[in-house]
Amino acid sequence: MVRLDVPDLVVDGAKPLDELAAATGARHDLLYCVLRATEAVGVLRERPDGTWEQTELSEVLRSDVPATLATWRSSRATTGTCVRTRRCTARSVPARTRSI
User: Fold this and answer.
1) Could you tell me which of 70, 40, 80, 25 has the C-alpha nearest to residue 92?
2) Which domains does the chain have, with CATH numbers?
3) How far, in Å, CA of 3 to CA of 77, rounded?
4) Exposed, middle or buried, 1 (CB in 10 Å: 0-12/13-18/19+)?
5) What is the pLDDT along the chain (100 residues), one digit of tens a residue?
6) What is the pLDDT of residues 30-57, one digit of tens each?
7) Are 70 and 63 a contacting pair, CB within 8 Å?
8) Where are the strands (E) in 2-96, listed by range?
9) Any idea what DSSP says for residue 100?
10) What are phi and psi of 54, to 5 degrees?
């Protein structure tokens, strides 16, 4: 989600899934699964109208925030590829995330 720059995309307000998928190049269905997972832990929030908005947790994942955690995303580069293409293998996901 961070690798796809979603926190940066919703900084100016809630965005619909279609717009986020187009902006990230991610497959609509796979991005929705990722967004729902982040909502479950409070990182993003789906509004009743179906748009996605930031939470306090997602603010620290923006690239323009001092002391951002977005730099952590470089170790997750292949995860973004998985969401875009659905070509995920054990080799494309960093070892420390496989058991999550």
Assistant:
1) 80
2) 6-97 (1.10.10.10)
3) 6
4) buried
5) 777 889 899 999 999 999 999 999 999 999 999 999 999 999 999 999 999 999 988 887 887 776 555 555 544 444 555 556 655 554 444 444 434 4
6) 999 999 999 999 999 999 999 999 998 8
7) yes
8) 15-16, 44-46, 51-54
9) -
10) -75, 160
For residue 28, give the amino acid letter. Answer: H
pTM for the full predicted model: 0.66
Residues sharing a CB contact under 8 Å with residue 57, sequence separation 6 or more, in sequence order:
41, 42, 43
Do 43 and 58 form a contact (C-beta atoms < 8 A)? yes
Note whether 12 and 68 are within 8 A (CB).
Answer: no
